[in-house]
What we know:
Structural class: alpha+beta
Order of helices and strands: EEEEEEHEHEHEEH
Mean pLDDT: 91
Shape: globular
Largest sheet: 5 strands, antiparallel
CATH class: Alpha Beta
Number of strands: 10
Strand content: 25-35%
Distance between the termini: 31 Å
Helix content: 25-40%
Strand order of the largest sheet: 1-2-3-4-5
Number of helices: 4
Amino acid sequence: MPDWNIGVSLVRDGRPVLAVVYFPVLDEMFTATEGGGAFLNGVRLRVSVKTSLDGALAGTGQAQPGHDPELAKRMGSAFAAMTNSALYVRVCVPVTHQLAQVAAGRMDLHWQFDNVRSHAAGVLLVQEAGGVVTDLEGKPWELAGESYLAAAPGVHAAALEVLSAWAVG
């Protein structure tokens, strides 16, 4: 699988301010600084301009150490709902790969229910590429939160509507 990566993020005052993620197999280096933009191998990134969820490429990656049956049920229900709304839904890890693809405009959205803290680098990439990142209630994303939706602005509201039923586990 070529999507494994090496990444580092700097978090200051509860928010990511620096991200560096390298995908060795693809020789892709994603970088972002708070307020400074997101880049792939030095070229500025922008999220997709799609405005319709029915044409969107979506993803999630709910790895389950310990196999929490409630999380599995929640994830399965959300996956089914998004499958009925988006063009395509991918479920895989590593999650940072999917977030980098959203930042690059190759995917349109990614959502997550757990392990949110480990995704700081990818979230910063999406934010700095012009994406919208909120919790599943539509409130601003927080590093200590339980969930998030990272999406291109044109599909964020529609995706949030699909996923909001699973905002609280």
